[in-house]
């Protein structure tokens, strides 16, 4: 990536592995949509995927871990204003509220059914919470409305041009945009990961979406190119065996 002039990249066609992705890496991607992103999939299947994400997030401690990563980003602020984009089930926001006594949260998703389910639960009744439908590519909020925007396990849902818009929008409405997503391993390791999941994909909707997520997730060099296209600075952490963490800010 360092050798690539980002001005010459056609962002819409950039491979998920980044501008200089290998042939094998380019083969390990798909335009196929996850059940969650399809209009022709019934609401019950989508709910089953969201419930499975909520449960596995609890089981493996991801909601808790992601909440602490987020709170570290606003550690110097007494009453941080945080927006969760693509919240799905709201598990991460629930942990943020527990861990911070005065943070104010706006919990959002593009999917009205998910937002209605969150609003009908405990989060919807919490005095420090607002629940809204927000499209992360076009956020209905003023510039600098938040200190932090968080987008967890959702960035890979968006093709590159839309993903770049999320970075532009997230860094417009918030001082920092925190993206947490699956790592994109080097291609041979990626093949191995896919091989362990593929046999179950036709039978379990959650695994079906997991395989597609793996094929759609962005590499660090892709994240850098997307941020450059969006006019943002980006700092990357984690990776290989742990979730990728990216913190984007508006370029000064
Ligand atoms: C895999 S789920 C992740 C849910 C939750 N953040 C988690 O960590 O388990 C992806 C979520 O992103 C949401 N999403 C997809 N495109 C979006 C967009 N353009 N704006 C906001 N949310 C979006 C989906 O509706 C879904 O709830």
UniProtKB/TrEMBL annotation:
InterPro entries: Methyltransf_25 (IPR041698), SAM-dependent_MTases_sf (IPR029063). The keyword Methyltransferase applies. GO terms for molecular function: methyltransferase activity. SUPFAM superfamilies: S-adenosyl-L-methionine-dependent methyltransferases (SSF53335). Keywords: Methyltransferase, Transferase. The keyword Transferase applies. Residues 82-173 form the Methyltransferase domain. It holds the Pfam family Methyltransf_25. GO terms for biological process: methylation. This is Methyltransferase domain-containing protein.
